Amino acid sequence: MSRRPAREEQATSLADAARDRVLTLPNVISFVRLLGVPLFLWLFLVVRADVAAVVVLAIGGTTDWVDGWIARRLGQVSRLGELLDPLADRLYILATLLAFTAREVVPWQFTGALLARELLLLGSLAVLRRYGYGPPPVHYVGKTATFLLLAAFPILLLAASVPAAATAAGAIGWGLAWWGLVLYWAAGAMYVVQASRLVRAVRQRSGGLTA
Fold this sequence. Notes:
This protein is an all-alpha fold. The chain is 82% helix and 0% strand. Helix 2 (25-46) packs antiparallel against helix 4, helix 2 runs parallel beside helix 5 (79-102) and helix 6 (108-130) runs parallel beside helix 8. It is globular, with a radius of gyration of 21 Å. The model is unreliable at 8-18 (pLDDT under 50).
């Protein structure tokens, strides 16, 4: 008698157990990135240590891809990590935007455009949950937009804090920021289309069952 079904079941159980792990190196990196958010706000808004705030932002932005890369490289992809990574990205973006707007590093219109996209995505997630779906997988367009925005913020802060670097850093920072904004909205539109297709499929199945 073949033992293949038992082995396949064992492999599936091991894979599920791996995805349920909490204490992994990628998750630790994501937790550290989350701790950087209140640290940045304290440095930037309370003690006005702009140079230190630039360093925290730069580290938080450049390590955006590290946790995901390590997770795939070491086979430590987990459900918690799939939630922590985009959560850390969004918190960095939202915290930085609000802090920058408060100190007039970026205009409120730019902040409003990004916040409007977040509200659109929250609405889509609420609809998906209503139909029994979780958050959609992160798309490479969204990851690229996040990388551009997280790269732009420390450069914009550098431009605002160091007059000698204002011209060059401002041009580079705003170039990255506007491209990030465009791709951020493009990714949002893709998520909305994906959500609408899932909802439409559920409604069609429901209509078929009741027909």
